[in-house]
Amino acid sequence: MHWTVLGFLAGAAGAWLLRRLRRGAVVPWLWCAVPNSVLWTVAGLRHPPPHWLAVTLALGWLAVVLTATDVLHRRLPDALTLPAYPVLAVLLVPAGLDTGVRALACGLLFGLGHLVVRLLSPGALGGGDVKLAVPLGAVLGAVSYGALALGAVLASVLSLLVGLTRPGGGIPHGPGLLASTWLLAVFSL
């Protein structure tokens, strides 16, 4: 169970990193260590091809640290969302040219869809959600076009469920986006 231990350590490092960002976010380290350990263990047990395992591990780590930050601080830091673009792009390269073109198209489409929602209803989505949609859309696109559509629906449903637990506040969309993308990335291949 080396993925369990490595995931725990990577999650704890994520909480440490969040504190050191320019606009730091204090997140209890166990909030990152334990969930990341679980996600990495599940991803490792699925035995995907090595290049896809790297995608799901990176995505799992990002999902945990950004979800914790969005739930506690109601923001998705640029210091984590923007580096997701090149990191996930590099990790998707071994998937091949056809998959890469589909991933690029889906990333742009997912980002554009979120941007339109943000412009039409600024209170519905934050800027971090729009920025995050592009690399997550690319991962969904690498799975399939159908995964992009299913990911959009699943993210909305998960966001509504999260909203039910927060009756007095807004609904963070980042956790739904991240969870749906991770689930489809891990269980679709």
Number of helices: 8
Helix content: over 70%
Low-confidence stretches: none
Largest sheet: none
Basic shape = globular
Secondary-structure element order, N to C:
HHHHHHHH
Mean pLDDT figure: 93
Structural class: mainly alpha
User: Radius of gyration from the CA trace?
Assistant: 15 Å
**Percent of sequence in beta strands:** under 5%
Detailed description of the structure:
With 189 residues, this protein is mostly helical. The longest helix is centred in the first third of the chain and has 24 residues, at 50-73. The two termini are 21 Å apart. 79% of the residues lie in helices and 0% in strands. Helix 7 crosses helix 8.
Short description:
The chain is mainly alpha-helical. The protein has helices at about 1-20, 30-45, 50-75, 80-90, 95-120, 125-145, 145-165, 175-185.
